[in-house]
Amino acid sequence: MSFNTFGRVFRFTTWGESHGPALGATVDGCPPGIELDEAFIQQFLDRRKPGTSRFTTQRKEPDQVRILSGVFEGRTTGTPIQLMIENTDQRSKDYGDIAQAYRPGHADIAYQLKYGIRDYRGGGRSSARETAARVAAGGVAQAVLRDLLPDLQIIGYMVQMGTLHLDRSRFDAGQIGQNPFFLPDAAAVPEWESYLDGIRKAQNSVGAAIEVLVRHCPPGLGAPIYAKLDTDLAAAMMSINAVKGVEIGEGMGAAALTGTENADEIRMGNDGPRFLSNHAGGILGGISTGQDIVVRFSVKPTSSILTPRQTINSKGDEIDLITKGRHDPCVGIRAVPIAEAMAACVILDHLMLDRAQTGGNRGEIG
Amino acid sequence: MSFNTFGRVFRFTTWGESHGPALGATVDGCPPGIELDEAFIQQFLDRRKPGTSRFTTQRKEPDQVRILSGVFEGRTTGTPIQLMIENTDQRSKDYGDIAQAYRPGHADIAYQLKYGIRDYRGGGRSSARETAARVAAGGVAQAVLRDLLPDLQIIGYMVQMGTLHLDRSRFDAGQIGQNPFFLPDAAAVPEWESYLDGIRKAQNSVGAAIEVLVRHCPPGLGAPIYAKLDTDLAAAMMSINAVKGVEIGEGMGAAALTGTENADEIRMGNDGPRFLSNHAGGILGGISTGQDIVVRFSVKPTSSILTPRQTINSKGDEIDLITKGRHDPCVGIRAVPIAEAMAACVILDHLMLDRAQTGGNRGEIG
Amino acid sequence: MSFNTFGRVFRFTTWGESHGPALGATVDGCPPGIELDEAFIQQFLDRRKPGTSRFTTQRKEPDQVRILSGVFEGRTTGTPIQLMIENTDQRSKDYGDIAQAYRPGHADIAYQLKYGIRDYRGGGRSSARETAARVAAGGVAQAVLRDLLPDLQIIGYMVQMGTLHLDRSRFDAGQIGQNPFFLPDAAAVPEWESYLDGIRKAQNSVGAAIEVLVRHCPPGLGAPIYAKLDTDLAAAMMSINAVKGVEIGEGMGAAALTGTENADEIRMGNDGPRFLSNHAGGILGGISTGQDIVVRFSVKPTSSILTPRQTINSKGDEIDLITKGRHDPCVGIRAVPIAEAMAACVILDHLMLDRAQTGGNRGEIG
Amino acid sequence: MSFNTFGRVFRFTTWGESHGPALGATVDGCPPGIELDEAFIQQFLDRRKPGTSRFTTQRKEPDQVRILSGVFEGRTTGTPIQLMIENTDQRSKDYGDIAQAYRPGHADIAYQLKYGIRDYRGGGRSSARETAARVAAGGVAQAVLRDLLPDLQIIGYMVQMGTLHLDRSRFDAGQIGQNPFFLPDAAAVPEWESYLDGIRKAQNSVGAAIEVLVRHCPPGLGAPIYAKLDTDLAAAMMSINAVKGVEIGEGMGAAALTGTENADEIRMGNDGPRFLSNHAGGILGGISTGQDIVVRFSVKPTSSILTPRQTINSKGDEIDLITKGRHDPCVGIRAVPIAEAMAACVILDHLMLDRAQTGGNRGEIG
């Protein structure tokens, strides 16, 4: 995990800018013999794709993935898999205003300070368009996991948008794919629509919180001390554009708990230990326990907004800036499939790392 | 960052168990020619040391560090620095009860499932005693930073313990070292003492939240996309025992903000860009901006408590468990110097990584 | 350096198969602000390109490189550089015979045993076509080195082909680019041509030895113990297809020397230490000394030959195999630009790694 | 593999200087549940130990290893294993002469140029004493291999010392441990003794070549392109002090072969492919084939000799230098157990890496 590479054994490197000819991911270390084709990966990209509702950017990108290597006659060969997505709807002229000015809250100024040069068109490398590449890489991970852990489920959904919160008592996983918010509560959709319409009309944007649930994850994944499963999940989520906080299980709320409250008591189930609660979010000592893994993170509001903000330009002049162009009023929405992709990659990487060290053998209890 | 190694260029590997003969850190990649001796490192260890107040474990460990390599005539040579701390106050008999039973909320069961074997004495490798080694490694990082970035300040403090919160309007950094809670508010100390005494007497424990502030960090540190500065800080903090959430700047609160609120507007200062607010916590696009870096994390309550909890033993029997031994009623307190150490290591690693890529040159604005 | 990635700080990952749609390299960690365009990289590819003389494979590949990311307005931005080369002259039918049979001396059987699946067309991933991608990556390294170390020269040439050896007393670097053998001796070219024509007509192939000379390399590059400069150069060369031996300076011949013979005595020159000989090949203790770096390696003969050899097929039948198709009679020839590319990448990686650790400062003598 | 760490999954970091208080290795990623104690590791150290014959340095070091972590009740726990060896026979005064002077052919000057500071006592970090630490790490690898690959044999021996060469027709593995030269030919021992006595009396030293044979290595180990098994073996051997060349199978001699000669023809044996020759040295395309792996390397003569050589000192004065102290007349002798240790670590690392990617499954032939 350095520069643009994520992962230790199952590793991918993303490349490409928002308005360059193409972007993609180089996936290395993939197990051989796994069924994989472009259609399988495409379904994940289609969930992240812009322009699917009025609540995402109106940029129209088909995000069609091509597999350029590493797959032969429908199966992975164990060699690097190159996934390429061509950019087709770049409108660089939209970005004239920000070529020489720094959007408040955006990476523009940081890239300028660090590198002394940046591709300003559409945010260049700092654009959330990079996440298409990781969703494609996540598709490869999902194909491998389907083979190695057929029961595993990775489910992402929104739990907060601005002042609106998911009512967990009405959680229905089946609803997640049925609305533009990846919301597991059908009844709340109209309120969320109306709220975000208001934000959009006010030429503003809003933050969000997303949760990813990993069901049927085997115990034993995680390599303490510095490659704990929760450490890697935190890094994975924090690497997503605009993320400002990550929580496992109780998360920040753990600070308010006592030891008696926080203890996930254990009984003996039919096929191993059974926990009576899940404050831990499925991870103890950096290692999965077999419980559901629960990861949550916040996404800050889009910094490209139509409301003028004070800033400076490259000459150091103080100016007011309005960011035109096509932007998501709540960039958090599209973070859902991205987070699922990152979770898939982390789980697979640790499955393989554990296979290296322990051979996949598990300690016996009882 | 794999298994027990943290860092890319400035990297350390910790080793050792709670009740083994010794533990330590192997620090590699350290710049040569830096003044370093055991006394300098010891001051950081002394802040983390157990047994300094009635609010930490009563285990008496001098935590005396020895430098076994990599330093010659008072200066680093650029070769690996071995830091060893001998364990002196192991009382293994205290741990008879947990040899064959799994504390709810503790890593005991996860290690057993993964490895099929564990050193149960004092939690073995999963004990927070490991953190002494990283505090020692952090001391080396601090020595290098003192030389390379003399203005840099890394300041950790508690912001929450159970239901008590720091009143930020009374923040006084000078008070942090003056009380057993690393609390930047002298007036609140009696209330915190009384609260924690209550927890302790109730044979319970409690969670906490800690904040680390990095002042005068230069802009340009961070290597997007997968080695962002905030990604690495999140991984660093999440790797600390019992941490369940990490936030940068606004953190989870960013989900509730609008774009106009969240934008840190920019004006031109005497020596570069000047931000009018710091929702970002000093990091944009994964790169430091020169603003104060703000990292916050939660620590769950100690899982070793004297109140009985339901659990199972290695035979799979369902039992009730009381954890005797010497435990911290609020393990979050001692996380303060640990978090500072981790922050120092991350900052130094990125300073060196940036030096590799950009030569330390900064882009000009204005 | 794992799987398909080479390098620590300046790192590239190659991807692609001999008969897939394309192949390429993902270059990461490149310094920003470096002038770079496709024409600059192309010149290196053109030297490696097949079909330029009757002594290389007759496959006609233009090996036209496209830069898909990481370069903006003619300069690198510090983000990943994707280099893609489309395959245009695949003739998969040529390879029908080897789809189910294993060429003796070739990787066919090893890939089959390891992965249980392989893209047999043209050798798939094990084809020397992969080296086009590293030559492209080397072009990026050359662009950076031109900027950071303008005096550095990396010069590869053949020193042996079968029974023919370079007469070092007639070494003339200016001749290297003037003949199909990268031979620094114009007078010997006719003999080499005639020899290789004989090999080719005999439906055979032959081995070779190549030397790379790095002139004006600064002292101080190399990170002992396990990232010594010579260690990395050895790994770089050994990773090239068909390489069976690597030597630094005296190489295997050092076994026959005495200490008095081998000592490169030192005098004081105008601008630092001056060595009276160079048995060391420019590297002591894994660190460059400022002397010329000398690396040499052998390349085994092409295993695809028209003379029948005994082997087995995928059913385990014992067969005789003739390998048709278009093959190099001496694959070592085209290893010259590949080795230069690898040397450039190693030197740059170590320059950057050294910059990270020492800031590029050098110890003073005298 | 960076700085002082070797390996990807099974990885060790060595630390310590020749005349510091101790040196050692931090071994990480070791599989759990493996039988291991100090006596097992000690047997490997005893083979490398100085002072065992008149042909090695007279420094008396017991090289007693202590396991400080990672082993519990006689078995590895999967956590880092710290191996420490205390230095006991440092005679720093011996090294007064070289404190400010640079031995020709030695790393002294390179360390000075790179780091600007060095522990000159006994060569500090560049001393071959570091290799004790890797032999200890190799002992851990051997313990794991004994468990996972009980048939595997790793056998090192000398094949050349100065002008003397092993007569391969008299190879007898049983003799290797019976003489001070690790020579597989009892009859040649007197001649080797007499030759090296001559070198020693002439106040000189001499080079050597060592071969390592790995028998019963399973096929499928090696992760092309940049983590080929032969690439890693080359890096492993080249990282040993004073090594100047590495060969696999035919090695440099492959340059002289034709394709018909070099083809290792294949027949079908009872339990898989059977090769009629082994020019490849057991590795094709970077992957083991199941044949014996053959690695060979040269070691230059000790540069610390009693015969005066021209050099400079730290002031830049030109001087003549005699190196007193206790030095090996042929440092290559003790490279034998070091090379075996490195081979064990490489094989285990690749066994684990392959287990990660393929699950250890092998492709079927026949």
What does this entry look like structurally?
4 copies of one chain form a homotetramer. In chain A, β5 (71-72) and β6 (75-76) form a beta hairpin. Chain A has one domain: Chorismate synthase, AroC fold, CATH 3.60.150. Chain A has helices at 38-48, 108-115, 130-148, 189-201, 229-238, 259-262, 335-358; strands at residues 5-6, 11-16, 22-28, 65-67, 71-72, 75-76, 81-86, 153-161, 164-165, 208-215, 243-248, 266-269, 272-275, 283-284, 287-288, 293-299, 309-312, 318-321. The first copy, chain A, is globular, with a radius of gyration of 21 Å. By secondary structure, chain A is an alpha+beta fold. The model of chain A has no long low-confidence stretch (mean pLDDT 94). Chain A is 24% helix and 22% strand. Chains in contact: A-B, A-C, A-D, B-C, B-D, C-D. At the C-D interface, β1, α2, α5, β11 and α6 of C face β1, α2, α5, β11 and α6 of D. β11 of chain A pairs antiparallel with β11 of chain B, so a sheet runs across the interface. Chains A, B, C, D: Keywords: Amino-acid biosynthesis, Aromatic amino acid biosynthesis, FAD, Flavoprotein, FMN, Lyase, NADP.
TL;DR of this structure?
The structure is a homotetramer of 366-residue chains. Chain A is an alpha+beta fold.
Provide the fold topology:
Four copies of one chain form a homotetramer.
Chain A lengths: L4 E2 L4 E6 L5 E7 L9 H11 L16 E3 L3 E2 L2 E2 L4 E6 L21 H8 L14 H19 L4 E9 L2 E2 L23 H13 L6 E8 L13 H10 L4 E6 L10 H4 L3 E4 L2 E4 L7 E2 L2 E2 L4 E7 L9 E4 L5 E4 L13 H24 L8
Antiparallel strand pairs in A: 1-2, 2-3, 3-7, 4-7, 5-6, 8-9, 8-10, 10-16, 11-16, 12-13, 14-15, 17-18
Helix pairs in contact in A: 1-3, 1-7, 3-7, 5-7
